[in-house]
Amino acid sequence: MEPPLIVLAPGPGYEGMLAIDSLYNDRSSGGLRIAPDLALEEIRELAREMTLKFALFRLPRGGAKAGLRLAGDLDAEARREALEGFGRRIGPIIRAGLYYPGTDMNCGFEDLRAVYAGAGLSIGRPTDTAFFTALGVSQAIQGCVQALELPHPVTLAIEGFGQVAAHMAAMLPAEEFRITALSTIRGAIANPSGFAPDELRGAKADHGDDLVRHLPGTDLPLESLLGTPADILVPAARTGSITADAARAVRARAIVPAANAPYAPGAAALLHDRGVLCLPGCLCNAGGVFGSSLADSGIPPGPIERLFQTRYRALVRHLVAACLPGRLSPVAVVEAVAEREARARGGRAPAGAPPAGLPRRIARKLTRRAARCLPRAYRRSAVWRQAHRALDALEADFREV
Where is the Glutamate/phenylalanine/leucine/valine/L-tryptophan dehydrogenase C-terminal domain (predicted)? Predict the structure, then answer.
């Protein structure tokens, strides 16, 4: 399989990087991740995860990811200059429509606006992908709980209580779920009685990552969060956070990721052998791309939420129920489906490969331009129908397990 296209874009005070894992319809998409210790390998893995996610839900784009290694203590002006500088360096790729950046870890709306400004483009307020990611994760949790027939209240341990986890905590019914442990980069805390949703929301709004120092409970070593007893473990932090060593310490009945690519090599297989049900990130957190694509097409939040509460939740429930009798791994099942769909699309974009022939590229662009000229209501209807067809296809795939 061909390697992804890697673009290194260093600048004053920062190291920028972009991995385009695949192109579909001559475009790719993925968020911009910002961290002081970001490695190129993490960006490569995330770009591949985006390819699998888009292929799984039959979304018409390839997978990519951008990264910025940036000190966390920069003042606002220095941060903006770095973001604009990175945008200028990858501007030709953005302006050509080959890559569309989005929000991601430590990259908010204003950060994204600065990147586009550096590329010479302006954008409105982007869709809140964290909300739709949380919508998918919350429904995946409920589908998993229904398939496993876990008694209420179901206990949750959350690694990385950020924007996605905060949205998710508000979405889960308080009478059915109890968050008993959580962590941020500032530490970890446990409370067997659970944290009240209003309490979490207020602490997050007032203190950010320092909320762990303002909640009632027992402080935990940060590295012990993954081994905290709970029915469901929700990794919502960095790529590969569940290492083989961490997998041996996990005491949850199931893992439902909010993070992309949370399992380090061998960890999912080890957990499966231990009897821990593992769901894949490319399925559970796909609301960030699947739900957002519907919202970007003009479909109101209400119908999107109902789609996830009904069809998407049922999809996860059917997958788990189908895997349990034969002790199959949902991670292996879903990734096989996603890899098959990615190969059917043409797989990865060969590094340094010439573009498609001019007539083919012109035809593609004319087709997309003509589609934009259609009435907005027709385009919304077409996107809605395509979303249902994608879920139909996934249901058929999972029935064959």
Answer: 124-380
> What's the domain count of the chain?
2
Owning domain of residue 117: 5-126
- Mark whether 204 is an active-site residue: no
In the set 53, 65, 204, 365, the catalytic residue is 65
Q: How many CA atoms lie within 13 A of 277 on its CB side?
A: 26
**Integer Cα distance of 183 and 212 in angstroms:** 7
| Residuewise pLDDT in 10s, the chain (401 residues) | 466 899 999 999 899 999 999 999 899 999 999 999 999 999 999 999 999 999 999 999 999 999 999 987 889 999 999 999 999 999 999 999 999 999 999 999 999 999 999 999 999 887 889 999 999 999 999 999 999 999 999 999 999 999 999 999 999 999 999 999 999 999 999 999 999 988 999 999 999 999 999 999 999 999 999 999 999 999 999 999 999 999 999 999 999 999 999 999 999 999 999 999 999 999 999 999 999 999 999 999 999 999 999 999 999 999 999 999 989 999 999 999 999 999 998 755 434 444 454 445 445 544 555 555 556 776 788 899 999 999 999 999 998 87
Are residues 38 and 69 part of one domain? Answer: yes
